């Protein structure tokens, strides 16, 4: 009996580190200011109409990311460009940013209004929804900032 207990105890001691390695681990880690989660372009959650109202109120242009859920370059923009700290600082300071799926809700009418035929299409519009400039396809953070600067240089003053 003592031998069996000793062998079982020894087996548990030897096997325990291997078993623990496969247990799921949950670690609580608060988000710290300046972390990548907080960087990048902040998009309005309340949609297109609200973005136009904010644009008028804040005297800023509207940056519209016209995307679809299946578009790979759209996903790349979200992952690489829109999360960039420098692009985020520039666009959050100078624009009201909104992203709209062109195949859902108001996106369908916006797609028709702006003649969107490729994705992503990036539109910069004034507070009445008139296009200042637009471009199609993936842009790097640096290219996006240049696109934004171009729009600001063509902004009509009220």
Tell me what the structure shows.
- This protein is an alpha+beta fold and about 160 residues long.
- The chain has one domain: Glutaredoxin, CATH 3.40.30.
- The chain contains six helices and four strands.
- Strands 2-1-3-4 form a four-stranded mixed sheet, with helices on both faces.
- A hairpin with a 5-residue loop joins β3 and β4.
- The longest helix has 19 residues, at about 1-20.
How would you briefly describe this protein structure?
The protein has helices spanning 2-20, 48-58, 72-81, 85-94, 106-114, 141-153, and strands spanning 61-67, 95-101, 121-125, 131-136. By secondary structure, it is an alpha+beta fold.
CATH-level-2 architecture: 3-Layer(aba) Sandwich
Major sheet size, sense and barrel closure: 4 strands, mixed
CATH H-level name... which superfamily?
Glutaredoxin
Write out the strand line-up for the largest beta sheet, numbering strands in chain order. Answer: 2-1-3-4
What's the order of the H and E elements? HHEHHEHEEH
Count of alpha and pi helical runs? 6
Question: Which regions contain 5 or more consecutive residues with pLDDT less than 50?
Answer: 15-37
Shape estimate: globular
Measured by DSSP, the beta-strand proportion falls in 15-25%
Our Rg estimate from Cα atoms comes to 25 Å
Number of strands: 4
Classify the helix fraction into a percent range. Answer: 40-55%
């Amino acid at each position: 009996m003592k031998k069996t207990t000793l062998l079982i105890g020894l087996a548990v001691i030897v096997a325990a580190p291997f078993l623990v390695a496969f247990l799921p681990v949950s670690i609580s880690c608060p988000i710290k200011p300046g972390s990548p989660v907080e960087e990048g372009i902040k998009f309005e959650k309340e949609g297109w109409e609200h973005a136009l109202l904010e644009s008028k109120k804040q005297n800023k242009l509207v940056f519209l990311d016209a995307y679809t859920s299946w578009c790979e370059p759209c996903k790349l923009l979200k992952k690489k460009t829109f999360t960039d700290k420098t692009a985020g600082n520039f666009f959050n300071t100078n624009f009201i940013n909104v992203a709209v799926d062109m195949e859902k809700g108001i996106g369908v009418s916006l797609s028709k209004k702006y003649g969107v035929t490729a994705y992503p299409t990036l539109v910069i519009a004034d507070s009445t929804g008139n296009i200042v400039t637009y471009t199609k396809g993936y842009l790097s953070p640096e290219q996006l900032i240049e696109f934004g600067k171009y729009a600001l240089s063509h902004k009509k003053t009220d």
